[in-house]
Structures are given as structure tokens and as C-alpha cells.
Amino acid sequence: MNTGTVAARTALATLLLFSFVLICSAGAPALPCEFYGTVTIDGSPAPAGTILSAKINDAERGRYVLEEAGTYGGPGTFDQRLKVVAEEGDLSSGSAQITFWIDGQKAWQETAFQPGVSMKLDLSVGGDAPAVTNVPSSDTLVHTVPETGTETNTIIQEIPVEAEITEEPIPEQQVQTDIQPVISDMPPQLPEMENPVPVTDSPADVLIADFVGEPVSGIVPLTVTFTDLSTGGPTMWAWDFGDGTTDTVANPVHQYMLPGSYTVRLTVSNQDSSATQLKEGYITVSDSGTLHADFTAQPTSGKPPLTVKFTDTSSGSPTMYAWTFGDGTGDMVANPTHTYTSPGKYTVNLTIADATGMSSTAARKDLIQVEGAVTPVPTLTPIPVPAVPQTFVGTVEIYGKPIQSGGTVEARIPGYDISGQFNPIKTAKGVFGKTGTFSPKLQVQGVPADSEIEFWVADEMTRMVRAYILQDDGTYLWTVPYQPGKETQLRLVVLKNPPNEIPPIPVTPVPTGCAGVPSIPMSIQGDVRITDGTEYLDADGTCYNCQPNIKIGGMIEARIEGHDVSGPENPFTMVSTGYFGSGNSSWADKLTIQGKCLPENSNITFWVKDDGWPRYTQAWVINEAIDDNETISVLGETREIPYEGGISRTVHLWAGPLPTVPPTPTPTPAPSAWEPQYFYGKAEFNGYPLRVGDRVMATREGIDLSNPTNPVSVLKFGEYGDLVGKEMLAVDVPYESMEQRDPITFWIKPQDFEYWYKAEVKNPLSSADWSDTYPFTPGSITNLDLRSNDRADFMYFYDIVETISNVILPDDYTGW
């Protein structure tokens, strides 16, 4: 290479650099810079789909979604790279600093914005900070030099701006080794850069409102923390909590003071637009007496083995408990203690139920954190990427008539939840949506392109039903494909009968069945008995403890299969205990059944929900007679009665099992008829399970309870008694010596201790707390947990013997 060639190249490079300086100083748009390299999270390659963001002054100026795990962009000419485009205000103070974000988490690395530069930059988040986080980038010149032949090759050489440019010849081998492998393939000056096309808002700039609340249910007073998840750069917030109160901060904390279901609305706005997110019935607040699961844990973090005490704080009257501790184990007591042996994060769930069958569940995600050498996988909050919606406007006909104002049009795609602020959408008379940039339209987004969209419509006279799409040529379609970014006009029609053959000119059929004429109402009055297990029949069939007892606030609903018979007086809410429909007029204060074209003698069934029940249960209709003593005799029962328009009828309803078999009286036991009561279960001392060889004994003050299996030795670690082998702790006494329900005291004697320690007892199947004694129930086998410690009441065995009479001891009672 001769001196002239070098001089020509040097001059050309100088000219390009000077031109670039002139462009920047003249206020022309700065060239973008580009980046590529590796992406790691806590030292592991970031998965495909990870979102990279580049920001200048906290404003996003570039975004890239990983297509390959651990790598973004590439050095090739046609490789996509993370492109950072600076706006006019970003460079007003000179050089701008670029920060990088990985799925919403700030990366360790950052660098200065340099127009026209493409550089390799490895990004990472989590783990230890790298030695260099502010990555320097040298000024890079891009120039082209004609080579031998007809092609023009791009030669890239890194030249410091301050370096002195000489005319010394550059060895050809040095030119090859100095060539950088990656430089932006974008020419430094393009014609459109001199007259740039105005940049339109990308989907990421569209203002979209969204939020979450935690928790979304609980008992009064319920404190909820709301978090704004809106995208598009909102600057103002307007919250409506549904209970008559509002707020204007981004992330408010609100307290609900009354029970109920609350709809929450968030409206966000900036200087360009606004958006609203409405979540109906989002917050559920229950009365303090309602069954609601809740619990606390202490401690919630530490090193293994970590023993955690869980305390049930549920409201209502739970009778059953089901815990899952997140490590594959669980328990069924109210307040369990559990030990975690492995490092990690554990989610804890508690499900409770009461005697009515109502249940409630509380979950605490990652509540327990056990420290250890294992590095936890970071939980990253992905940045939502809004999809470009397809919008729909058009007309709606139901059975040949325009849809009523206030009707509903909803788009559905099986397998996807596409509901949102504008899906479903309310209608005006005959139409839905409105053309125009800012007019409300039915929107579908967030699903794969070409997904098949169905349309469902309803108004006050019609339940939700699927609609046909009527085309201009008179043919029908069931669905249309999802086409993001497109506005589509539709003609939706609901037909009484699906067309077998699509006619060339559609004719909207006129309903030939019921024309919507209401039927003649039928009124119902009567009473309701909800069984509580105390009812029984005598030999003559007379029912005892069978008086009506449904609570005020309970509900009765009449149903006819295939017909909608709901109305202002169906379901009926109880205003007095036990009885309903006490008004003197034909229809006042009665359960009223009325529908459209109800056939006579249609079968009516009755469904009952007592106050506080979560759901309805079907009731029996009892045929009853009252004798001279006003006792109720159950003569027969059925599940339904016929619909008879225009009449009023009295019914007697029964919810729950019917008493059909007279109870067999319990015979009074003979003096020698007491059967032994056997005990088995878990036992612990000082918080540790009993060891094999430890002893357990039952006593009753003044009574000799000793026998070959009282006391008993522990044969299995942590348990006394053997249910399978029948080697259980037995309380066996003559009939005259004890009464049923007399309290029994239990004692534990660990090995190497010379005392017997008094134990607390608890039935693991009961919600009752620990107690000092347990009632004598002859003939039963009882699962009973025992616990004691060295601070409990204690006695020598001889002292215990002195408190009971006529004790018979074996010849050798060493160790008792």
C-alpha cells in the first residue's frame, strides 16, 4: 500500500469525522448506537423471551427481546442489535449516560451514548458486581475505501479523536488486525436522516392502565395495598375504591371498613392521553363472623433446621384444618409446629372448613425463607409488552330486531382470557362501538395472530348467545381471524335456528315459539326446616325437633329447568325466622314464580341457602298433617311441585337428610357393663417426641386405674399405644367406680427422670385447644395427643399411688 493511498484514506476519515461533528453541532438528529453481547442472570444465561431495555435519563430509548438464551444481537451485517435512539432533549447537556435493564431489573453495566457506534457489551444482573460497571467506549470512525476491483469494501478502524494523523504508511497486516469485527451497518448519512420521518408512538408508548391489590379478600377492617402496573408513562392517577372514597397517588393503601364486594377503578393520564382499568367485584370484605382463613407464622426466616410455629387466626367457626408447608408435608391441627431442614423459599397454605361445609383458603407465597448455601433463583417482574389490538364496530340484530341500548357484545377466543376495558362493550340501540381515533370500540389483543374470534351478545330480553357474522354477499361466518392493528366493521345477527344451508340473501327468521309473553304468576308461602341432627321419628312416624328454623337473611329460590323464573320476589329473602310469605294479599311478601311462556305443570324445585351459607342446596317438599297436639307427622316427601299459574300455594320445605328411621334407645348399662376406653396417639416431652422405653399413664383421683396396659411403655418413636396391635393405654374400671365424662389425668415419665410429669391432652380431630384432662367415654378408642415438660406438675410414683385407693401393684414395679 503506497503513501498516497494512506494519505487518501486518512483525509477521507478526517472529512467524515468533520462532517459528523458539523451534523451534531447543527442540531441534526443524532445517529443511533447499537449493542450486542451476552445476558446473564445470577451467572446463568438469561432465557429466551427476556426483555432488555436501554434508558437515557430514566426514559426508555431502546428495547430488545432475546430470541436465544443468553445472547442478544450479533456482529453480522444483518444481525439485529439493541438499537438506542436518542431524542433531542437527551443530548442537551452534552454526553448522555445509557443504563440497561433486564426484565425490569437494572443491570450492572452502563455506558455513554455515542452516535453511530456499534459495540459488544455483556450485560448481567444479580450476583457479585463486576470489576467495571461503567464501560468506556472509544470514539469509532466509519469510512469506506475503494479496493481493487468493482466492489467497495467497508473498512473500520478505531482512531482516537485526539490522535495526531500522520502520513506514515500503515503496514497491510496491521490494517487487517486493527479492523473491528462489529460496526453498525447503517451508513453515517442517509437522505432520510437529513429530513427524518416523524416518529410515531410504538405500542410500548401507548398508555395502558393496570393494577393489583394485596390482599383482595379478608375480614373487616381490611387494609389493601394497591400497586400501579400501568405502562406508557403515566404522570397522574385517579383511584376509585368502590366504597365512596378516592385517592390520587400512584400506589395507595386503603382500608375497607364495611363488609361487601367492591369494584375498583384506576384512571391514569399524561399530557398526551388517558386510560382506565375497571375490575368489578375485585375486593371482597367479609364480616368478622364469616368463615375466613388466616394465620401467622413465627419465625419466618433463619438457618436450617428452622422450627416455625403456625397460629390459626381464622374468623368464623372452623372445625377442620388442612395445612401444606410447601416442602411436601402438612398437618391437620389448628396450630401446628413444623421444622424446615433444607434451604429455600416455602409457600404455606391453610384451608379451613366448618360444620356447614363452607370452606376458605389462605396462602402466603414464599412466607418461609430458610437460609443456606443454595442461591435462590431471583424473582423478576417482567415488563408487560402490550399487543397491538384489533378493534371492532358494527351493528347487532337479535331475532330480527336491533339490540337494545345497554346490551352487551363480547369477543371470545377459546383457551384465552381476552376480557378487558373494552371487551365486553355496551351497545347503543342496534350498534356497538364508534369509528374515530379516540372513540370506544370492542378490542381484542394479547393473543397469536389469526386466532379465531367468536362474538356473543345479550340484552335485557335475551341471555348471552353466540352471534353469526353476516357478510355483504349474504353468507354467514362463525368466526373472524385476529388481525392486530386492524379496525373491522361487523354485522352481528342472532338467529333462532342455525341455518343448514346459507341462503344467498339472508332472511332474519321471526321467532315461532314463545313471543316473550309473561306467564301468569304463581305465589308460594310456607316454612323451612334446616336439619341440625336433633330430629327423630317415633314408632308412629311423629317427628320431633322439626320446627321451622331458617334464619332471617336466608334465601329461597324456585327453579324450573330450561326457563328463567327469577324476578323481584324470586329468590325470596327471609324477613322472619322459619316462615315466609305471610302477607294478606295474593302476591305481597310471597315467593313469586313468573317467566315467559311457562308450560302448565312444569316441575318446580326449591333451593335453600341459610344466612352465611356459601351456596344453595336443594330442599324436600314435605306433605304434612297436624294432629290434636300440634305435632308434625311426616306422611311423604318429594323434590318438586307442578307450576300452576294464578294460584297461591303453601309448601313445607326441608333442607338436609330426612329422619326416616326411629332411633334405637341406648340401654342403661348394667353395673359390670363398662367397656374399657383405649387411648393411642403422639406424645412429646420438652418439645421432643418420646423415646422407646418412656412411659405413659392415666389416673383418676381416688380411683384405681392400674392394669396390665396402664401404664404403657412407648414402643414406637414419638407415639404411645398401637392401634393395629391393640396394645393401647387402657382405662378399665368397674361400673360403680366412675361416671361417664369423669375427667382422666395423664402422666409422662421419660427415661432417666425420677418423676412423673403431668401432661396436657388434645384430640387432633377436634378444634378444641389443649386441656388438663380428657372425659371418660367407655367403649371408645380415642386418638389423643399428649405433651409435657420438666416445668409441669410432677410427682413420685408413690405419691400418685397414695392418691388412689385399693391400688394393686405388681411385685416388681421398678421404673413405674
Tell me what the structure shows:
By secondary structure, the protein is mostly beta strands. The protein folds into six domains: 192 residues, no CATH class; 82 residues, Immunoglobulin-like, CATH 2.60.40; 76 residues, Immunoglobulin-like; 105 residues, Sandwich (Immunoglobulin-like); 134 residues, no CATH class; 126 residues. 5% of the residues lie in helices and 39% in strands. It has four helices and 66 strands. The strands form 13 sheets. Strands 29, 30, 31, 32, 33, 34, 35, 36, 37, 38, 39 and 40 form a twelve-stranded mixed sheet that branches. Strands 54, 55, 58, 59, 62, 64 and 65 form a seven-stranded mixed sheet that branches. The protein is flat and about 105 Å long. The N and C termini lie far apart (108 Å). The relative contact order is 0.05. About 16% of the residues have low confidence.
Write a brief structural summary.
This protein is mostly beta strands and 816 residues long.
